[in-house]
Amino acid sequence: MDYQFIRNDRAEPAAIFEMGAETLGLWFSEELGRDRKKLAHVLNVIQQLEDKEIEHYLLQGREFNMDLNRDEIEVYAAITRDEGEVDIPEDTELYDQESITGCGLEDFKEVLLSWEQFVGRM
How many domains does the chain have? Predict the structure, then answer.
């Protein structure tokens, strides 16, 4: 999985991920940002998953949610799963290919630790 971390035009941390994993970049940029408390919480959840203390965890965000289990994570735009709360015409299908991204838990942890270092230098 290819990615890079940059500072956006407001000098805020931003993550850019390869095509097909754009949602993960949005999660890092918009949901996590510089929030060290949230970062520590997610790392703690990963540790609990690795230690087999829990099997699954749902992290709900403002615009994106994350499902974590012992093998993988999935980040998705909340609207793709909460269609009942959005007033859309009947028979409308939502295109969600660019709204859902998944990867292995180990890979995600590596990226999360890299993000922690990146925002720590800002």
Answer: 1
